[in-house]
Write a structure and sequence with these properties.
The structure is a homodimer of 155-residue chains.
Chain A (H helix, E strand, L loop, with lengths): L1 E2 L16 H9 L2 H12 L4 H8 L3 H13 L3 E6 L7 E6 L1 H4 L2 H14 L6 E5 L6 E7 L10 E5 L3
Parallel strand pairs in A: 1-6
Antiparallel strand pairs in A: 2-3
Helix pairs in contact in A: 3-4
Chain A binds a DNA duplex (30 and 30 nucleotides) through helix 4.
Chain lengths: 155, 155
DNA sequence: CCTCTGACTATTGTTTGCTGAAGTCAGACG
DNA sequence: CGTCTGACTTCAGCAAACAATAGTCAGAGG
């Protein structure tokens, strides 16, 4: 990765919450919060299912779902099954869906580098090929590490 | 995201460290560990620079760099500046470079959804266009959330 | 009205991540 | 030989994340 000249001295601007990576990690930076988002992508919507599938206590489930809802990644929506009362389910918002590249990139990295064979793959539903997460520019060109540059926002 | 039929009942397989996302979060799941990786992408290699730019104490810096090195994301390499003694620097390994999509995806998501304007953009060094992180299949097709499916690994 | 279920909340205690300050250690240089 | 610097390590302590258990609460069904 390259840095624009005036960013070379980065002791100043990287700290103190200026970095988007840092702010993102503040929201989904704990293990269970990220796993809750993973579950949301897997289609989980109910409180007890989040708790069981992530393997976290109800208290942790409650605080994580609340934090993710307040951050705008999940939305509470009332639903009703026949013969039961109205309940709330947690569904992904647009901002939540936007986090999918992060989760898929973690999945891909974990499959390649973190220990034993996972047993589960993420594939393109159409062609069955493995899903990869790549950086592209607006033109659609694939980028390598060296093609990426950090710049101060122009305006 | 879709799930293969035999994965529909996922109370079993999602827990107990079977998921690559979970294993990945075990390594870079803390805020400072991820920020240390961000710094490595920004070109930081020295102990004190990691500490200052991430904003973490030397103790935390030490344990994070050690953990990342043991996990194979960073590598210690001796270097020498004229007139000083030999020192070690921390450089990205191949596995470390592979994590770039995760960091870029967090950067992109944070820029769009996490609060104030970041002031810094990631762009394609060649054309200056913003970098996006997208899921693609091996054929290179861009995938939306609905195009992605989870399957049990065949062999 | 009582029970049952899904969805929580509250309490207690433990573990992990982190900070701040102080100390160590190797070797270049005066 | 003593100092200085970069790169750590050690220690004490705090705060957040988390687990385990128990309790609450709303409403449908009996």
């Amino acid at each position: 990765m390259k840095l624009e000249e005036r960013l070379q001295d980065r002791t100043q601007w990287t700290t103190a919450g200026r970095c988007p990576v840092e702010r993102a990690m503040g929201l989904v930076g704990s293990r269970n919060a990220m796993l809750a988002m993973r579950e949301a992508f897997y289609g989980t919507t109910r409180f007890d299912d989040f708790a069981e599938r992530v393997g976290m206590s109800p208290a942790t489930t409650s605080s994580n779902l609340k934090a993710l809802t307040e951050a705008g990644l999940l939305e509470r929506r009332p639903y009703r099954e026949a013969g039961t009362r109205t309940r709330d389910e947690y569904v992904l918002t647009e901002a939540g869906v936007d986090l999918m590249p992060v989760v898929l990139a973690l999945f891909a990295w974990g499959s390649r580098h973190a220990g034993e064979t996972p047993g589960v793959d993420v594939v393109h539903a159409g062609c069955g090929e493995a899903v990869e997460v790549r950086a592209t520019c607006a033109g659609g060109h694939q980028l390598e590490s060296d093609d990426v540059e950090l710049r101060v926002r122009s305006r």
